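Q: How would the structure tokens look for this protein?
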Amino acid sequence: MCLMIGSMSARVNMHDIAKRAKVSLGTVSNVMNGSAVVSEPLRRRVLQTIEELGYHPSQLARALRRDSSNMIGMVVPDITNPFFPALVRAVEDVAYSNLYRLVLCNSDNDPQKEATYLRELQSYLPAGLLLIAAVESKLTHPPVRNGRLTPTVCIDRKPQGWKGDIIRTGNEAGAYSAARHLIDYGHRRIGMIGGPSHLANSQERLKGFRRALKEAKIEIPKAYIQIGNLDRASGLEAALRLLRSPSRPTAIFAANDLMAMGALLAVRELGLHCPEDVSIVGFDNLDVAELLMPPLTTIQQPTYNLGVAAAELLLQRISGLTEPAREIILETKLIRRASVMRNASPSPTAPSMKRSARRAAAL
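A: Here is the predicted structure in token form.
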């Protein structure tokens, strides 16, 4: 019996299902597409018949008829970075609950590879695209297929010149909060490990860092700003340059947690201790941050919410939303852990900063 059904499955069509279930062809179509309300007994009968006959509709044929599939394409720059899988999971949850399927590509932070994936994904007739841009992404507008824009939402990183939707976090405000925390704890020699200078996120985090120092009337040497590549290895190298300085900083703000981990390694390599010799603050609040020694003070990004917001906006675009491009910014939060310690002998403090230090001491 099972072998017979298997051999028949390639020839089964919706007419066979309707005949066997003793319902109309329209009822079968409505059950399969969810396009109209069908009574529960009829729906169960149709679904049972589909299972018995081993019927599998051709998604490709359906996509060709509609010039669109139920697939959402997503390109990320580095799937090994722990920040991105949590975001992808959120997107997949929203997509699955709305009967869409997610196809994931990894660009390796290579703009040419990113462009290749975006072009090839179009050939699969995706309903929409989600992009976490490569560092030097060239994308400025949503891709076009057959004369129509494919709904596209960028997440986290804004490519230079991007004119479409983007969901991101308050990078400047988060970096300001990180620097302010170090200042309130008496630090005046504060270094920063920033990301690539042409990345919008990096620019915003550097801007927030500088704003906090300016308000506190703190001037730092140019060498106190080092640039990394948002990975642990570059964080290690940048921190070594900072800490080998004759007048090394007493604190370091790293523009992401991976580079903060590299800074922790540099502290150990030089025989120093965190936070006794050097306080460190990161940015992201990866799951591993609280497991480090010491647990890392960091700026929490609402990673899951970023993915949810991006997926929901994309679904709205797929459904026909035509209003101008949106830029949605989610708030960050300072997570205080043990990697920051009060500086025992701070430099003279401006009056406004003394008040801030007293407030911090009362926490």
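Residues 1-10, 346-363 have pLDDT under 50 and may be disordered.

The chain is about 45% helix and 15% strand.

Upvote if useful.
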